[in-house]
Design brief:
By secondary structure, this protein is α/β, with parallel strands linked by helices. Strands 3-2-1-4-5-6 form a six-stranded parallel beta sheet, sandwiched between helices. A three-stranded antiparallel beta sheet has the order 7-10-11. α1 packs across α11, α3 packs parallel to α4 and α5 packs across α9.
Length: 339
């Protein structure tokens, strides 16, 4: 079965799935989009609602369908599963969402499907590895949304702190998409400038500016805080805890992840060969295997093209291995649980 490069499906039409569908409509990446949900009426309603906006968006066909309709899809996005509730971690969802994923994969693998699986449901790293194991597909075709969202949060907060466009921030969150994730500060930069160098350049420029307001900028500089570390630690904690804060206030996160998934989809459809910290199955990279973690990787039309072993300092490598241990414990607990 040949894939239609401009056909995609979304399995799960809750807040996240519907938001991703809306993002796909805005992007105009696909000419056909199929929505699937355990509640067929929900999928039909979302397809009808989205289709009402087609005269003002991209030319595409949006339908509610079944598993027979996804066999020629280039991309299938899986968002189905229980949502994280206030007070829950992503790992708390492991048992019920693995069972749901197993059911979905049974339907997909029973058919001839040659496209890419993009796992979005949480805990995404555990489910990405599980999807790879259960499907039998090569790891290039099974990826997770990983820490693309977390990295976006990091860029936003760091850009806000430094008063610079967040699109000029180059930094990664890696490891688990969850509480054990880590920021790779050793490689973070602003358009190639090391963070401390950037701060010194800005501080020097502002010190010569007229008026006290310029000298009292909220711009973070090493001299103000005895080094950048306290500020970076605060930003990291805000990134790590962001989902908890959003869920506490509105009950669900959906728009940020929709933007992140849209970015991944664009890399695939446009064959961008872009670097994104998606969740990938490791096979010796960073001295790790037998699990999936969110790692900077090159993404193109065939899915995963290459996992990048970026330089990490000793502390970052230890933190990555600690995150891996948590993922292994989660996978071990899953192996003992009925699914």
């Amino acid at each position: 079965m040949n894939c239609n490069p401009r056909k995609a499906a979304i399995i799960g039409c809750g807040y996240v799935g519907a938001s991703i569908a809306f993002r796909f409509l805005q992007q105009g990446l696909f000419s056909q989009l199929v929505l699937l949900d355990a509640n067929q009426a929900k999928a039909e309603g979302e397809a009808m609602d989205l289709s009402d906006g087609l005269p003002y968006g991209a030319a595409m066909e949006i339908t509610a369908g079944g598993y027979d309709d996804i066999t020629d899809c280039a991309l299938v996005v899986i968002t189905a599963g229980a949502n994280q509730r206030p007070g829950e971690t992503r790992l708390d969802l492991i048992g019920k969402n693995t069972a749901i994923l197993q059911s979905i994969l049974g339907e997909i693998t029973a058919r001839e499907f040659d496209g890419i699986l993009l796992i979005v449901s949480n805990p995404v790293d555990v489910l990405t590895y599980t999807a790879w194991k259960l499907s039998g597909y090569p790891r290039e075709r099974v990826i997770g949304s990983g820490t693309v969202l977390d990295t976006g949060r990091l860029k936003h907060l760091l850009g806000k702190e430094l008063r610079v466009d967040s699109r000029n921030i180059h930094a990664f969150i890696i490891g688990e998409h969850g509480d054990s994730e880590l920021a790779v500060w050793s490689e973070a930069n602003v358009s190639g400038l090391d963070l401390e160098d950037f701060c010194r350049i800005r501080a020097a420029a502002r010190s010569g500016a007229a008026g006290p307001a310029a000298r009292q900028s909220r711009m973070t500089v090493p001299e103000q805080y005895g080094g950048l570390t306290p500020t970076l630690d605060r930003i990291y904690r805000e990134v790590r805890d962001s989902a908890y804060e959003i869920i506490r206030r509105k009950g669900v996160t959906c728009y940020g992840i929709a933007m992140a998934v849209g970015r991944i989809a664009a890399c695939i459809v446009k064959d961008e060969h872009a670097v994104l910290p998606v969740s990938v199955v490791l096979d010796g990279e960073y001295g790790l295997d037998g699990l999936a973690l969110s790692i900077p990787s090159i993404i193109g039309r065939t899915g995963l093209e290459e996992i990048l072993e970026i330089p990490l300092n000793d502390g970052e490598l230890q933190a990555l291995h600690a995150s891996a241990r948590q993922m292994r414990e989660a996978l071990d607990s899953l192996a003992c649980a009925p699914v």
